[in-house]
Design brief:
about 220 residues; alpha/beta; 9 helices; about 45% helix
Length: about 220
């Protein structure tokens, strides 16, 4: 007895990404883990508008901006793609003002956005836990003399680790506070600075709320 083969079910086609928000991070773990946590917690799946953290071995402001510009100009880039670079001001001894200025000017000229934290990304993390406007000269100065270590120990039950993949879960309840506190800190810093001052001149400062706003609006 002949049997009639059932028609094969058609595979459901997913729309190709129409645009991508591409993020380049200075840190190999801390910033990517935080951003991925934010995406997982707050961003609904959207196959047409994708947010991606780009793999890179570059870790200086100029190098990261150059990487973003290179990809922006490549055939992989679509007209509506957005490009963001995330890095720290760090100490003046590590990165001179001229190097930061070079990176900033290149980015502005090429339509690349920068989310800079002065003096370090951990200042943004601390704002999830505490309202502060204290300035520090370097990451080491921040870690030694701020309440960051104690605050993380209190909420996580263990010391801070840059490689912690679960830190975001302990901080996410404070994101709204962090955004409000950052807005206040940034506004005060800009108000007190010279007219020609750039974010890398203002201490403390963090551009992370702008990146999160861009992610929220990317649809």
């Amino acid at each position: 007895m002949e049997t009639t083969a059932l028609p094969k079910a058609r595979k459901k086609r997913h729309p190709a990404a129409q645009k991508t928000l591409r993020v380049f991070c200075e840190g190999a773990k801390t910033e990517p883990y935080y951003i991925r946590g934010y995406l997982s917690e707050f961003r609904a799946s959207n196959r047409a508008a994708v947010v991606e953290i780009q793999p890179t071995r570059k870790n200086t402001p100029v190098q990261l901006v150059d990487e973003a510009i290179k990809l922006k100009k490549s055939p992989r880039s679509l007209p509506n793609d957005e490009f963001w670079v995330v890095y720290d001001r760090e100490s003046v001894a590590k990165y001179s003002r001229s190097k930061h200025s070079e990176a900033w000017q290149k980015a502005q000229k090429s339509g690349v956005n920068i989310a800079l934290s002065n003096v370090c990304f951990e200042f943004w993390l601390l704002l999830h836990l505490k309202d502060t406007s204290a300035s520090y000269s370097s990451y080491d100065d921040f870690y030694k003399n701020s309440s960051f270590s104690a605050e993380v120990q209190k909420i996580c039950g263990k010391p801070y680790s840059k490689s912690s993949a679960v830190l975001f879960d302990n901080l996410k309840a404070g994101i709204a506070d962090a955004r409000a506190r950052a807005q206040k800190v940034n506004a005060a810093g800009i108000s007190a600075a010279e007219v020609s001052a750039m974010p890398f001149d203002i201490n403390p400062y963090t551009g992370m709320p702008s990146l999160l706003d861009a992610i929220d609006a990317f649809k």
